[in-house]
Amino acid sequence: MGPAYSQQNLDTIYGNPKSVREKVEFLNEKKQNYKFMQNDGDYGHATIFTPKGIKSRFHLYWYNYHWVFYVNYFKEFLENGLPKNERWYNKDGSLEREFKYTYDKKNNLIEEKEVYFEGVFFETRLHYNHLNKLIASSYYSSDEPNEFSHWYYIRDKRNNIIETRTVDIEGEDYTIVNELNQEGKVVRVIRKYIPNWRKIEVLQKDLTYKRSVLHEYDYDEKGNKILELNYNEEAARVYSKKIFKYDSLNNLIETTAFFRPSDTTKYRTTKYVYNKDGLNTFKEELSSEEESEYESQRIFYNEDGLIIKNILNEKSLKTVLTFKYQFDKKGNWTEITKIVNGEPLYVWTRDIKYY
User: Fold this and answer.
1) What is the residue range of 184's domain?
2) Would 76 be classed as within a structural domain?
């Protein structure tokens, strides 16, 4: 077999791919992909449809739950390896969405066109400085040509983004400010709102300049995030608090979320254990609210770092997930079968063509 995979790079394709056809197939017609509501589409409930978001959610549920989400697309690449376009399909074979990508001479993505149906599309345009760092983006919908927004990214001398300024069709100015420490880590996120008075027909008393804290962070001497505070903008107070702990190798070993920041007796903790290769082998979640909410996972890998088994314990219910892989001559996986409690239920396939 070719180069080894880790669980972090399942989208990697070794060699020089020309196209990939990827989808999940169901071996039991009674056990299909998860839907929150009966009338949901194939890709779920109220989904913000982006290839990155869909695949991220699919990967998460494929390895960590007994059900799956849906994925079905065809993607073409340029000879330099950059994506050219991709078409996403529903179960009945109909086209759900198409994405087209354009690049500049430096291979920076400068245009992404998301095509819905009958030529209706949503377009994103991106602009870069001489260091190839993103400095501006604009968003436009073909069926509402007068509705748009422009985003401007202000950077410091080290090219860290310190402000993201958004201006919409009404001239409203929303700015997100990142306050950084000496190492360039974000320690505070602030939202500034500047109203456009010219659009107002009737003066509103509450329409004023606003500046509010959204998040605050703290880090240890190694740069690991150890504290996260999230604020309620209207009340100007902390509504959630998270604490993070790490081992000597900077692996995250514990996360604690407090339901009420002022009450440390109400919390939910997630603990992690790793093997010598830094792969997560055990995970458990404990809640102060109710012992029956205890959940755990015991994860097993093959010699190439691929998950081959995940034993789930959730509220006294045990589920065993087993995974079997097939590869092509270049070492790229082409088929993964998901077996739930001994029953093969789902097959995730990739048909890869090469230049």
Assistant:
1) 104-215
2) no
